[in-house]
Amino acid sequence: MSMIVRENPTFPDQVVGQVDETSAAGIDAVVKAADVAQIAWAALELADRCRILSAAADLLTDDVIASVGRAMTLELGKPLQDAKGEAAYSRLLLRTNIADAPTVLAPHVIDDQGGRLVRRQVPFGVVAAITPWNAPIVLSMLKVGPALVSGNAIVVKPSPQAPLAVTEYFSVLASGLPTGLLQVVHGGPEAGEALVTHPLVRKVAFTGGDVVARHIGAAAARVITPTVMELGGNDAAIFLDDALLDDTAFERIVMATYMMGGQVCMASKRIYVSRSRYDEFVQGFVAAANRVVVVGDPMIEGVTVGPVVSRAAQERLEALAASSAAAGGEVIDVGRIADEVVVAGGYFVRPRVVLGLPDAAPLVCEEQFGPLVPIQVYDGLDEVIERANSTELGLGASVWSADEAKAFAVAQRLEAGFVFINTHNRTGMSPRAPFGGVKKSGFGREYGDEGLLEYVQNVSIHAPAAFRPGGSGGSANAYPV
Ligand code: NAD
């Protein structure tokens, strides 16, 4: 059996831990066990499922959160406070699913002169969740919570780049649930594909990049298994000429850009500023970044940006910075280095802004997924909306203005699944607000009622009044009226 060994991106010569890669036979056994568990789980009343899940959620104690947060920081370089926050937020999301399920999943009954129609929300069966490394627990929980509460079993395959915290967290949750209902398997493309194409897997929930999405989409199509896909973004943050540019606004846009080293699907990835405010903006942005971006060992309190995930990511981002300079961009280092020795030894990338790039430069028109951001100038509203929309991606965007009505009006013209007003990224999310992409950023939604409904299928049971005993009868082949 082969092992997946995870190095620490802050101190790459340190091994953080390892997991066994799941073989094809192992995946088969896991899915079969999940299928058995699912049948009994779906037969329970919703209230009983909620009660059991609620007790299992209680096992995710603050001690578990602290331990899992530490594991995530070591394997991923996510600052410790953030990592613990992610684990705690995921517990909140599960509790939100449990609270919302009785209303969202309630059967809908119509009983009138047309007959009796019962519309039920039934689970798919076994769900496969394939998740990326950058927010391993929350991006798994967005599938685990809705899938389980609505009567599915779920098998999670996290990224081999962040397998440890997820395994610890969901093992604790699974220990409070019937055997087989929630399992974690490990591996890369081979394990992922074995899971996606397993005949007992009835739905695939994927979060990741477009290259893998195409593979998974094609594999799932071959076995006619539905998918939900949360893919990458190239979020535009648009500052209108009346935007309130105070210290806290600058700190919000700075952290929306650099948190997790910019390795967040909904990070602000292109900033557009009205020409009348451009100089003021650049100055304020750089000053705020120098105050709040502290690069170093993510275990140390006060560090807000750790390393990127791997040497490959570091090299890709350095090449992107070099090509941005070669394309005529003015590249400015921002933030402070907490410890030069640590930063020199790990997979760190200096946060930077790049000014004066053409929109066709890769840093502007492609998802950078790292701590480099272009700040672009614009002259007119129609122009900036067109430039913001001129991408195949459509995950998030933001509009910044002192006039909320005006911001909403601009937001409605943006091709994005989620538009934040006067903020961007994590601070603008809400458990009740459905999140997901338009265009090539994906389909289906997570969070909110829609996020729960992704894991059920509507089935209808209909008794037309005309054919009930004593009914009016009617033609054997007429269209219904
Ligand atoms: P990735 O697409 O490389 O990998 C995602 C997962 O797919 C991993 O678990 C990987 O092992 C698995 N996988 C790889 N090949 C496979 C195959 N052939 N069959 C089945 N599974 C396979 O993504 P990543 O590098 O881990 O994450 C970064 C990407 O994820 C970025 O593009 C980012 O924008 C996106 N992302 C999107 C969201 C969102 O909610 N929209 C959230 C976070 C990240």
In short:
This protein has 481 residues and is of the alpha/beta class.
Describe the fold and architecture:
Helices cover 41% and strands 21% of the residues. The model has no long low-confidence stretch (mean pLDDT 97). The relative contact order is 0.13. Strand 15, helix 13 (362-365) and strand 16 (372-378) form a beta-alpha-beta unit. The chain has 16 helices and 22 strands. The protein has 481 residues and is an alpha/beta fold. The strands form 6 sheets. The chain has a 7-stranded mixed β-sheet with strand order 13-15-16-11-10-18-19, sandwiched between helices. Strands 7-6-5-8-9-21 form a 6-stranded mixed β-sheet, sandwiched between helices. Helix 9 (247-258) packs across helix 10. Bound molecules: nicotinamide-adenine-dinucleotide. Nicotinamide-adenine-dinucleotide binds next to helix 7 and helix 8.
